[in-house]
Amino acid sequence: MTILGIESSCDETSAAVVRDGVLLSNIISSQYFHSEYGGVVPELASRAHLRAVLPIVREALREARIGVSELDAVAATQGPGLIGSLLVGLNVGKSLSVSLDIPFLPVHHIEAHLFSTFLQDPHPEFPFLGLVVSGGHTLLVRVDAIGEYALLGSTIDDAAGEAFDKVAKMMDLGFPGGPAIDRCAALGNATAHSFPRPLLDSNDFRFSFSGLKTAVLYHLRRLATAGALSLTDNERNDICASFQRAVVDVLIGKAIRAATDNGIRDIALVGGVSANSELQRRLRAAGSDHSVRVFIPDMIYSTDNAAMVARLASLQCDLEGKGTLHAPAFARIGDTLFDAHS
Ligand code: KG4
Ligand code: ZN
């Protein structure tokens, strides 16, 4: 079974080929120009996807050394994401499926992130806990099988990645902010400031990062009123380290409790924020303290990519064996997949 996957939900255009569950190619084109605007500009993103998508698909087929006639199915991200961006990949996928007379498999972006851990060996075993931390979502999901999910909790305001991006913006660290904060934090003192750990001790699995972001903002304002014209490198690094420590404390505290409460032995840490070095290091340590195995995709599969789309489609194909063209794009996680099974 040879599957082409296409991902265009936000600011990466990506295509990948998976044959019999093995990844043959994964081509990603990142839209770096958004950093000029301090965030992703939806209209510019969809235009850039339009320009990039066909060359990227061709390159993915070339690297996989296969012709289009060898494809058994094509998959593309259906949502959640930016509607204009999603429509590009979705319609290229559907068009290929019609012209080649092969099934089209619409893929849920968050579900694809969960199975990004299945691009490597070993991978988590069911039931596992998914901690999904991206620019748009923060969720804890119990994964009982492919397609069987129980949403344990999600953020009630900002996503973890969104908090990283907004705090980085306050300190002019550029966009996306996560990697920059990660680098600065490595040089700072994480105990310099005691920022809040929102909902850490709440008896549920909800998250909230908006108050933490505001605490950093007020701290920066206090420094400015005290006469500081600009932050010194040390001050900036300490703020980044203290902020990151607070986010990581909350994510790890909740994830370990969710795993132990549910008797789960495997955790998959996925989504762009899973690239964070402190989060990776401390979750692995907490996992070994609690006899929980931690699975984290390689960096290239943690941020948005089509390999995870093609891999999930290949797992679904084994189960269902057929696709559908009735797959409209959707922007929000809404009452799809995860809510339906919670
Ligand atoms: O999964 P992703 O590529 O796109 C979405 O589906 O949102 O996640 C992007 C997010 C951004 O907010 C970015 O700042 C964050 O992942 N990110 C990081 C790191 N690398 C990327 N956050 C913290 N530390 C990192 N090293
Ligand atoms: Zn994503």
Gross geometry: globular
- Major beta-sheet overview: 5 strands, mixed
Bound molecules: 5'-O-[(R)-(carboxyoxy)(hydroxy)phosphoryl]adenosine, zinc ion
Q: Regarding CATH, which class of the largest domain?
A: Alpha Beta
Structural class: alpha/beta
Per DSSP, the total helix count is 11
For the biggest β-sheet, the strand order reads 3-2-1-4-5
Task: Please give the alpha-carbon distance between the first and last residues.
Answer: 32 Å
Give the proportion of residues in helices.
40-55%
The average pLDDT score comes to: 93
Instruction: Give the total of beta strands.
Output: 10
What is the CATH H-level superfamily of the largest domain?
ATPase, nucleotide binding domain
Radius of gyration: 20 Å
Total tally of structural domains: 2
Fold-level CATH name of the largest domain: Nucleotidyltransferase, domain 5
CATH architecture assignment name of the largest domain? 2-Layer Sandwich
Uncertain segments of ≥5 residues (pLDDT<50)?
Answer: none
Write up what this structure looks like:
- Helix content is 43%, strand content 19%.
- By secondary structure, it is α/β, with parallel strands linked by helices.
- Strands 3-2-1-4-5 form a 5-stranded mixed sheet, sandwiched between helices.
- Strand 7 (138-145) and strand 8 form a beta hairpin.
- It is globular, with a radius of gyration of 20 Å.
- The model has no long low-confidence stretch (mean pLDDT 93).
- The structure holds 5'-O-[(R)-(carboxyoxy)(hydroxy)phosphoryl]adenosine and zinc ion.
- 5'-O-[(R)-(carboxyoxy)(hydroxy)phosphoryl]adenosine (KG4) is lined by residues 10, 134-136, 161, 164-165, 176-179, 182, 271-273, 275-276, 303-304.
